[in-house]
Amino acid sequence: MFRAYLISTLKEAGCEVSISGPFSIKWLDNLSLTQADKIIPIDTFTSLSKEIISSDADTLISLNTPLWQRKITSLMWSQKINKYLITVNNQWLDS
What we know:
Blueprint: H1 2-12, E1 18-21, H2 25-32, E2 38-41, H3 45-54, E3 59-64, H4 66-78, E4 84-89
Parallel strand pairs: 1-2, 1-3, 3-4
C-alpha cells in the first residue's frame, strides 16, 4: 500500500504527517492503521483551505479529486504558502 510506505518514509525522516481530504469510512479505517500523526476528514474545499493556511506543517498530503488538486495549487500560489504539497487522486479509491 503506497500510502503506508509514503507515511512511514516521512516518519522515519522525522516528519510530522497530517493527511487531509474527503475520505470514505473504508479509507479512514485504512489510514488509521498507518503511522500518520493526524487524519483530518474534510468535506468542503473551504475547510481544506483553512486547514492548509493554518497548518504549521512544512509538507501537506492531500487526498482528493483532480479538481480540488488544481484549487489547492492555486490557493497555495495566491496565498504564497511556502510548503511542500503531495496530492493523491482519491477519485477511484473506493472502486
